[in-house]
Design goal:
Layout: E1 16-20, E2 23-26, E3 31-34, H1 37-40, H2 49-59, H3 72-84, E4 89-93, H4 96-113, E5 121-125, H5 134-140, H6 143-146, E6 156-159, H7 164-170, E7 175-180, E8 183-184, E9 190-191, H8 194-207, E10 210-214, E11 238-241, E12 252-256, H9 277-290, H10 293-316, E13 321-327, E14 330-335, H11 339-348, E15 351-352, E16 354-356, E17 360-363, H12 371-386
Parallel strand pairs: 3-15, 5-6, 5-7, 7-10, 10-11
Antiparallel strand pairs: 1-2, 2-3, 4-12, 8-9, 11-12, 13-14, 14-17, 16-17
Helix pairs in contact: 2-9, 3-9, 10-12, 11-12
């Protein structure tokens, strides 16, 4: 008999009932060190006291009104994001996939309003992941996402990651936008070199195509800057954000320049729950903590500490691990053994990590993880590696 919960996940046989900072506690009281962060979501850790207080206070006042009315918490969060980013305006959603759907619609509507309704094609890159709606799986185009779900949404051109010649050749007058993750997440924690991101910005400027950054996983302080594209000194026209912005409360946003958003007038887009008072109260508090130069400097310091310890781990287990890559506290351990074997061995050490593409184990801890927990996490990875042997 099919389970009551649709079995679209191969769930691990463990269940957590409580969280404290970088730790999760199961129903038997066992403590697990969480280096996955709910897949880069709990940026400030579990049950972060200031956020708990925000949720409690907001729950006692107002949960929902709908976007038929002005929502002060939504406007306050929008102002904070506008002050901190390239964006002039934004639309709030419940998830990253919805933020990407808004970005896709915005790019196509932009050219429709410019009198070029046939300029609808959007370029994406191999290894990308933008969500699991029909639109976003059509955008990514990978076999594991699209198999069995056709017909897919047309108008996406999939190019090999890093193939500059293919990109140049594809940039004709049918291209509405180019979508890029500054750090590929699901595909294996692959940072786009700053020079490539700058080159893409220049190419978009030359052709008029809009540049869309998917910062759903790599944004909100994850790389040591508020958003990963800032390292390259460039700005997108449109950006999708989610995950860490709500620290576990469902919240996403599609940010844009005034020009890029010019076609999105009243009635062109909507959301029942997106930007509700509860979510935006949390998001506003998250921004107050993460968008602080001292906090972001600590993210970079801790990232350096973690990376140094991981390099030592690789040196100790060259038959298990190949290399570490990534940016900030968005790191990937490329494995020589099967990555899920490493993840499973970690479970035995009460350690939580996330598998990714290209045989990588993703490490996406809370941005405020302690130095002691960083050391403990690598120690548990070391114990996990001792149980594994290379298949090479």
């Amino acid at each position: 008999m099919i389970p009551a919960v649709l079995p679209t996940y191969s769930r691990v046989k463990m269940s957590f009932v409580k969280g404290e900072g970088s730790w999760l506690i199961d129903q038997d009281g066992a403590r697990y060190l969480d280096l996955g962060g709910g897949i880069a979501v709990t940026a400030l850790g579990h049950a972060f006291p200031p956020l708990v207080k925000v949720v409690q206070d907001q729950a006692e006042t107002l949960w929902h009104t709908s976007n038929l009315y002005q929502i002060p918490h939504q406007e306050a969060l929008a102002e904070k994001l506008r002050d901190a980013t390239f964006a002039d305006t934004m639309f709030f959603t419940n998830s990253g996939a919805e933020a990407m759907e808004c970005a896709i619609k915005m790019a196509r509507k932009y050219w429709y309003e410019k009198g070029q309704p046939d300029r609808v094609n959007i370029i994406t890159f191999s290894g990308s992941f933008h969500g699991r709606t029909l639109g976003t799986i059509s955008a990514a185009g990978s076999e594991k996402l699209i198999k069995g779900f056709g017909p897919l949404l047309p108008g996406f051109i999939h190019l090999p990651f890093g193939d500059h010649d293919a990109l140049q050749a594809a940039m004709d007058d049918t291209i509405a936008a180019v979508v890029v993750e500054p750090v590929i997440g699901e595909g294996g924690i692959i940072p786009l070199p700053d020079a490539c991101l700058k080159g893409l910005r220049d190419l978009c400027d030359q052709t008029g195509a809009l540049m869309i950054c998917d910062e759903i996983q790599c944004g909100m302080g994850r790389t040591g800057k508020l958003f990963a594209h800032e390292w390259a000194g460039v700005s997108p026209d449109i950006m999708a954000v989610a995950k860490g912005i709500g620290n576990g409360f469902p919240l996403g946003a599609c940010l844009a320049t005034e020009d890029a958003a010019s076609g999105m007038t009243a009635g062109t887009h909507g959301s029942t729950y997106g930007g509700n008072p509860m979510a935006c109260a949390v998001g506003s508090a998250v921004m107050d903590h993460i968008n602080d130069p001292a906090f972001l400097a600590e993210v970079s310091r801790k990232a350096g500490l973690l990376r140094q310890k991981l390099e030592g781990l690789i040196a100790s287990h060259p038959d298990v691990f190949e290399l570490v890559r990534g940016s900030g506290l968005m790191l990937g351990l490329k494995c020589k053994v099967t990555n899920t074997d490493v993840v499973n061995a970690g479970y035995d050490q009460h350690l939580l990590t996330i598998p990714g593409g290209d045989n990588v184990v993703r490490l996406l801890p809370a941005l405020n993880i302690s130095d002691a927990d960083i050391a403990e996490g690598v120690n548990r990875l070391d114990k996990a590696a001792l149980t594994l042997k290379s298949d090479a």
